[in-house]
C-alpha cells in the first residue's frame, strides 16, 4: 500500500570526489526502486546532482539510470518534488517535463497527512552573510545565466566540478547536533512566531543527520546526505524517521 512519504537530499550524483560514481548511482537507483511499492510522494531536497546546466537544445550527459528510476516512479503515480539546491540550481524545463515532476526554487510550506511541513534545501534560510546572498542572487539571475550558457561546456563543466571539490575539501566538519544559536534553529523559531506552529522543518545542505525538538510537537530535521552517510527520511502520517540506505 502506498502510504509513505520519503525525503532525501545531497546525493551529489556525478561529483568527482565520489570514488565510484557508477556504484553510487546504482545504490541510489536500487533505493528508489525499493520504495516504489510504498511511496506515495518523494521529496528531493536539493543538491541531487553535483552539477547540472540545461542548455536550450542539449542537456549534460550521464545520470541515465537515475532519471529512468525517477520516471518510473512518476509514471506509477508517485508525486515527485525536486527542490533546487546550490549545486543543481540550473534546472529549467527539461527534467520537470521529461520525468513528470514539480521543481521548486525556494521553500514550501505544505500539509502532509494532516501535519504541517516547511521544507527548503537549507542554504537559503536564515543566511545572513551578504557575500553568500549576493552569490545566490547572481546564480539565479536570468541575464547571468544566459551569459554563462554562452561559454562552451568544455570550460564550464570542469570549472563547476573543481569548485564543488574545493568546497567539500575546505568545508568545516560538523557533528550531528545543532546549537540553539544555529541559523536554522533561529529561523524555525522566527518562522513559527510569524506564521504559527509547524510540525516538521525539513532541510538538507549541511550533510549531517539531525532530529532536534525545537518546540512542543515541533521538530527540525536535517536529512544528512546520500553519498557518504546514505541517510534519508520517511513519514508514515504519524512518525518521521531518519534511516540509512
Describe the structure.
The protein contains seven helices and eleven strands. It has 245 residues and is α/β, with parallel strands linked by helices. Strands 4-3-2-1-10-11 form a six-stranded mixed sheet, covered by helices on one side. Strand 5 (108-112) and strand 6 form a beta hairpin. Helix 1 (21-35) runs parallel beside helix 2. The longest helix has 18 residues, at 153-170. The chain is globular and about 50 Å long. The relative contact order is 0.18.
User: Strand order within the widest sheet?
Assistant: 4-3-2-1-10-11
| CA distance, first residue to last residue | 21 Å
Question: How many DSSP E strands?
Answer: 11
Provide a count of the helices.
7
Care to give the gist of this entry?
By secondary structure, the chain is of the alpha/beta class. The protein has helices at residues 21-35, 64-75, 94-100, 130-140, 142-149, 153-170, 183-195; strands at 4-8, 39-44, 79-83, 102-104, 108-112, 115-119, 200-203, 209-215, 218-223, 231-235, 240-244.
Amino acid at each position: 500500500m502506498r502510504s509513505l512519504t520519503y525525503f532525501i537530499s545531497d546525493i551529489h550524483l556525478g561529483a568527482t570526489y565520489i570514488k565510484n560514481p557508477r556504484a553510487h548511482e546504482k545504490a541510489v537507483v536500487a533505493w528508489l526502486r525499493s520504495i516504489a511499492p510504498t511511496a506515495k510522494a518523494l521529496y528531493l531536497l536539493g543538491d541531487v546532482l553535483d552539477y547540472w546546466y540545461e542548455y536550450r537544445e542539449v542537456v549534460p550527459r550521464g545520470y541515465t539510470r537515475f532519471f529512468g528510476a525517477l520516471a518510473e516512479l512518476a509514471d506509477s503515480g508517485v508525486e515527485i518534488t525536486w527542490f533546487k539546491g546550490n549545486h543543481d540550481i540550473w534546472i529549467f524545463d527539461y527534467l520537470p517535463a521529461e520525468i513528470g515532476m514539480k521543481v521548486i526554487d525556494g521553500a514550501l510550506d505544505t500539509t502532509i497527512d494532516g501535519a504541517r511541513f516547511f521544507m527548503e534545501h537549507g542554504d537559503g534560510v536564515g543566511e545572513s552573510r551578504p557575500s553568500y546572498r549576493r552569490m545566490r542572487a547572481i546564480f539565479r539571475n536570468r541575464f547571468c545565466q544566459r551569459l554563462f550558457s554562452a561559454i562552451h561546456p568544455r570550460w564550464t563543466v570542469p570549472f563547476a566540478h573543481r569548485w564543488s571539490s574545493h568546497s567539500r575539501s575546505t568545508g568545516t566538519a560538523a557533528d550531528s547536533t545543532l546549537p540553539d544559536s544555529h541559523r536554522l534553529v533561529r529561523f524555525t523559531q522566527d518562522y513559527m512566531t510569524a506564521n504559527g506552529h509547524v510540525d516538521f522543518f525539513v532541510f538538507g545542505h549541511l550533510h549531517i543527520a539531525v532530529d532536534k525538538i525545537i518546540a512542543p510537537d515541533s521538530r527540525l530535521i536535517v536529512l544528512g546526505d546520500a553519498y557518504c552517510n546514505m541517510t534519508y527520511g520517511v513519514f508514515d502520517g504519524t512518525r518521521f524517521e531518519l534511516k540509512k540506505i
